[in-house]
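for ur thesis appendix - Flagellar P-ring protein. copy paste whatever u need, i formatted it the way the template wanted (i think)
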Amino acid sequence: MRLFIQALLCLVITLAQQGSVSASPVRIKDLVDFDGVRGNDLVGYGLVVGLDGSGDGLRNAPFTEDIMTNILERLSVNVTGEQFRPKNVAAVLVTATLPPFARTGGQIDVTVSAIGDAKSLLGGTLVMTPMNAADGEIYAVSQGTIIAGGATAGGDGGQVTQGVPTSGTIPSGARIEREIEFQLSSLSDLRLALREADFTTAGRIEQAINRDFGRGVAVMLDSGTVLLDVPATRMESVAHALGRIENIEVEPERKARVVVDQRSGTIVMGEDVRISRVAVSQGNLTLRIQEEPLVAQPNPFAAGETVVVPRTRAAIEEEPGIGLAEIPSGASLSEVIAGLNALGVSPRDMIDILKSIKAAGALHAEFVVR
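the 3d part is after this line
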């Protein structure tokens, strides 16, 4: 892990040094979302059949029996009063995203997740399931064979699970039955919403669009919005104007940011991270406690009782310090990494050091911990 982190940091340093010379421009379509051009979330409640004994236990998941009864009755199969306890069915939630401008008859991918105590959805088939949007209307119907990404194996004495077998996907598993009403061609102005609000980036987008059209067609409203005057573009339609605008390249401005993942020990720093002059020292303190209980037993014919005498060994060990490592004022990313690596600490210790530097007010960047 340590070698991986060091290699990752070296890559970040290289990219930062290259970026300091000439930052790579980015297309506007990769920086903004066009107002109204968005997806819509869909959800459905359905039944998966054909499982190999890994379905819901109906005593623990009565809702599975209810939906199974409803489906069979819709198929003219009367099961009222019948007692059946199959282990090859499971109740699931089906989710998907309806993309913008999706048309009736198109197909989208769906995700299927068990909501009962099913052990695995591997090899199961989702029965026809209506999918609703937030307005309660049905926009798609899903059905198909589930592709699960995990596996479970075991016996009477133990069990092993790899991945998440209780969740899977159905590629092109839902067919669109209703379209979202949105008249793009009727818009006279359109807002470009920046995914990361920044006044400098918004200003550059405004300038790049106006420069490309040769006249004022865009104006920055705030750090996260640029307003486009569609008639001023003199294009055939709104779609033509957006097709031209989305490929214009802009050099975005990025915030100084340090991102830390405590679970894996990953540290990523942006090229604009700066640290004021500070001295750092690092050492480890180890506390060792060992229990060695002593059992005292009486002689075989003595009228005594066995007694457990507690014995504890406690010790504190402190590794010798390595002195102070100085990081100069206004240090760049490469200098920050070099200064921290000079301490010879592990990535997780480096995370603690960065937190302490931030707490001391010497780290001039947004500190994000995940």
